[in-house]
Amino acid sequence: MLCRTRASGLRASAVLVAAALVIAACGSSDDDGSGDADATLVAYTGQSSDYQINFNPYSSSIGGIGTIFEPLFYFNILRAAEPEPRLATNYSWNTDGTQLSITLRENVAWSDGQKFTARDVLFTLDLLTRHKEMNGAGFDGHATAPDETHVVVTFDRPSFVRGPQVLGRIYIVPEHKWKDIDNPATDTLSSPVGTGPYTLAEFKPQAFTYAANPNYWGGAPAVKKVRFLALSGNQSGEQALRARQVDWQSAPVPDVKNIEKNYPGYKALITPLNQMVLATCSNPALGCAGPQTDPAVRQAIYHGLHRTQTNTLAFEGTSSEISPGFGLLARDNAVISSRLRNRVAPMQPDTARARQLLEDAGYRRNGDGVYAKGGSQLSLTVKTVAGWADYITALSTMAQQLKQVGIKLTVEQLSWNEWTSQRQSGRFQLIMDSLNQGPAPDPYYLYSYFFGTQGTAKVGGKASTNWSRFSDPQVDRALAALTTLDPKNTAARQGHLDTVQTRVEESMAYIPVLTQGTVTEYHAAKFTGWPTGDAPYAMPAVWQSPDNAEVMKRLKPVGS
Amino acid sequence: MRYYLRKLTFYLVALWSALTLNFLIPRMLPGDPVDILLAKLQQRGGAVDPSTRRAYELLLGTDSGESLPRQYVGYLGNLARGQLGISVSDFPAPVSSVIATSLPWTVVLVGLATLLSVLIGTGLGVLVGWRRGTWLDSLLPATTVLSAVPYFWLALILVAVLGSGLGWFPLLGGYDVTLTPGWNGPFLSSAVYHGVLPALTIVLSSAGAWLLGTRNMMVSTMAEDFVLTARAKGLRDSRIMAWYAARNAVLPTAAGFAISLGFVVAGSIVTEQVFAYPGIGAKLLQAVQSNDYALMQGIFLVITITVLGANLLVDLLYGLVDPRVRAGG
Known about the structure:
The structure holds 2 protein chains of 2 kinds.
Chain A: H1 14-25, E1 40-44, E2 73-74, E3 84-85, E4 88-93, E5 99-104, H2 118-130, E6 142-147, E7 150-154, H3 163-168, H4 175-178, E8 198-204, E9 207-212, E10 225-229, H5 234-242, E11 248-249, H6 259-262, E12 266-280, H7 295-304, H8 307-315, H9 351-360, E13 364-365, E14 371-373, E15 376-377, E16 379-385, H10 389-405, E17 408-414, H11 416-425, E18 430-435, H12 444-451, H13 473-483, H14 490-507, E19 510-523, E20 527-528, H15 547-554, E21 556-557
Parallel strand pairs in A: 1-10, 1-11, 16-17, 16-18
Antiparallel strand pairs in A: 2-3, 4-5, 5-7, 6-7, 8-9, 9-10, 11-19, 12-18, 12-19, 13-14, 14-15, 20-21
Helix pairs in contact in A: 1-5, 7-9, 8-10, 12-13, 13-14
Chain B: H1 2-27, H2 33-43, H3 50-60, H4 68-80, H5 95-130, H6 139-148, H7 151-165, H8 185-222, H9 225-232, H10 237-249, H11 251-262, H12 269-275, H13 280-289, H14 293-321, H15 323-328
Helix pairs in contact in B: 1-14, 2-3, 5-8, 5-11, 5-14, 6-8, 7-8, 7-12, 8-10, 9-10, 11-14, 12-13, 13-14
Protein name (chain B): Peptide/nickel transport system permease protein
Pfam families (chain B): BPD_transp_1
Subcellular location (chain B): Cell membrane; Membrane
């Protein structure tokens, strides 16, 4: 439920943590569960109450994406690499990006034995066109099939950037089953038929189980059974991990650095992906008010943060550096602009610089050491969610750091619903949040979500993604130009990416904090083949679809 | 007769106002279900672009733009027809089926635990009150301490010692998920086995209050003249304790028990959270966190009806048992 990553992860109160320590002291059972070739992989996504059956990939399903239903290609958002072929083997764009030609894989069968053909792809795309409520991928093309293994999608306008949604986020469903479904948007598919590596073996409110598809085109996976549990949140997930009842989960655990000692047989993987920011309501033209609308204040906060200290105190060192242009470090190294003033946000504070910025903007320090201008103090309120312990700790470290500069930061905790609503309507000065990536390893998507004018609204209205109300004609022009450029044409794209990054750095509408590490724990003594390293073969988080299916496919039981 | 009519009218009015509040309160919560769903999707790494929002609005039908009075009329009409709507957080399951799958777990676990705790607490209370001044009095501070300890803390300690440390009981869940739910031996015994620890914590933490109340009533009843008369008649001690003193002393307990049965449905949130137990408390939490109006309303409706029903039952029974109540109003 709540964000499995950080949100509910560190919700545990001090009392609960203490209880976990008591449990730790009591030790765990002797059974290490390793060395069984028929071992069931038990996964916990953070689901905090019973499951209700729903395997419809277009209707907030509980599972099936990637495991039962496959996309045409798999896009790994952690690696700057070409997408990997799944139900399709090849794709190409025409020169102006209005026509996408797709070659489908041959000899693929649905799990009920019927042959997979281009008609299924056409049917799926047509389904999304006819049912707007299912079209979360925003498909706006027109598809035809010249033969059984080819599909051509045409668009009204250059649509290179729509490619990853069509190729990677549309899950192909069987025409022979779905054509008889009366209401495909709300059907819960109690016996789903797909092409994927797994089929649904059984469903119970407390757990559902996948079984390996023996006729999978890529060969049946080595892990024969995968079970997803329903517990009551990350605290119970932690207990289950200690009792070795769960092999795979993605939620922070106490003392993650020593996981191999605390949880024998387990390992952890930290994946930097979402970029944490202090989002500011930055744009007075759209109704923002407060000291944070002054770019000098935002720059001063940027230079006043002690990121190393925040990382140590609030995140156990699991976070990492961030680029002020929001290219994802490592993955986007090739496109991070050389025109940025800082390629990486400084990890140490520069108090003198921060003060200079404020003084140049007309602020003066008064007796109590806080800056003021026009009689009003430089005092800001930052909103976060009550119970997000890591964010609350991080913000209190930042409040101390900014006090050194002469900026007063007050932390306000809200309920999650309230916070979500205020974030959307722009009723805040600062909020702590993180920026997510799009469907492909390309920073374009982050820029278009969080910096594009079409994603924002006046204060009081609903901004779909651009909470900061940032709006800049130069950035909008660059984003529009990027939609007309083939992603392979890196030279032409770079100029526009440079423009976006430098404008983003100058404006500081979102003040970069750190890149958050998603922590995943896995039972290494029971299964091998887990993702590793800085650019793993898939995002290892158990709740991330379709990436989790990629992991399940590659695992092997130890001793098999 | 007038007494019962008056009572019934009162409960009907109470039910109507509860239903109306039930309609209004969830709508005053900040945020709307689409925002919450999108925020969750986004935090799970989903790519949220403007078309995703439109799709969700259409899918959930939340953007109806209907006026509040019209929604209210529709709500009452649907209730009359037994339709509780579609759950947003468990989309597209109907609220009634969400409640139907989770309610039995809570009713059986918390219901049985409450019953046990009342029986044990009252029984011990009668005994302790009767034998006032003996070593039995030391039960009082012991059980009061258990009641005073925050419930979740007691539960976590028991989990740590009995579940994790000694391995006597499972830590989490309502049953062994490899079994098939239904009327079969292995599943039922697994469900009972998984229920022992949560039930034990409820009994331990609540029996003390019943014990204390009954014991005090017992002590004051024993000072009554009719107990003295019974003694003077030379009746056996056990008969005086059971038929004269205890019978009068447990009257308030009986009323309290009916009311606490009404709260069974609502009072299980913490238990279910600690033990990852499948039940209505966990669903209520989920509904509140997801702005799932329909599910919240459905669960509140169940709570309202059980609380009102239990109270009505007590009122009617009291009228029967105690003539003073009937005449007094």
